[in-house]
Amino acid sequence: GGPRRLLLVSNSTLHGGGYLGHCQQHIKSFLGEKVKRVLFVPYALHDRDAYARTAREKFESLGYGLDSIHESCDPVEAVRKSEAIFIGGGNTFRLLKALYDNSLIQEIRKRVLEDGIPYMGSSAGTNVATVSINTTNDMPIVYPPSLQALGLVPFNINPHYLDPDVKSTHMGETREERIRQYHEEPNTPPVLGLREGAMLLVEGDKATLQGVTGARLFLRGKKPTEHEPGTDFSFLLIDSNLQNP
């Protein structure tokens, strides 16, 4: 198999654009000429048929066929035969539970990490590509058997990362505080806060921030740091836990 290839997008829709409009050029250069069909996983939304229609329309406009896994009588077999996998956004708990219920965690890991097929995620689909879904923004509307996810990278991501609004008088918890609370637990991996419009491209042992907005990196026991598009995040792929104990 080849090296892992991942395109992890923060959000499916950016203000003023259509579904996946802001990253369609990234998708084309990521999937390239070799991939003809993409296997879509719509488990994060309740109306899977409508979701598959939206995704199919977009990918066909880019020149790719799309099969939705929910239309397959054997989801495991669909993953084994897939040329590329795209997991869309929605509720991360619902998505992860469905991946477990359909015995897809190990199958997807094997296809991506051993066979080297391209994996694309947006929002919840990006959450499940990481170590765990502990740093999702979603409500636990269903109960997956574990919060451990696909583990295609050895860190976590917080998609749709929001900065504190300095003008706000609302004193609610910021996203940064929630991530800090996560890092108060022992042995917690780095968390990359991906803003709307940002995405992470992983090719083998190289990880690069792409898109139009920056990202904020949280390491346990350290001050968060700010990063612009083009940043090399390859050091996050070294699974040495990077943390002070």
Task: Give the proportion of residues in helices.
Answer: 25-40%
Q: Give the SSE order as H and E letters.
A: EHEHEHEHHEHEHEEEEE
Termini gap: 35 Å
Here the CATH topology equals: Rossmann fold
- The CATH architecture term is 3-Layer(aba) Sandwich
How many H/I helices?
Answer: 7
Rg, rounded, reads: 17 Å
- CATH top level assignment: Alpha Beta
Characterize the overall form. globular
Poorly predicted regions: 241-245
Total number of distinct structural domains? 1
Mean pLDDT, nearest integer? 93
The count of DSSP E runs of length 2 or more, i.e. the number of strands, is 11
**Major sheet strand order:** 3-2-4-5-1-8-9
Q: What structural class results from the helix and strand content? A: alpha/beta
Estimated share of beta-strand residues? 15-25%
Could you describe the largest sheet, including whether it forms a barrel?
Answer: 7 strands, mixed
CATH superfamily name?
Answer: Class I glutamine amidotransferase (GATase) domain
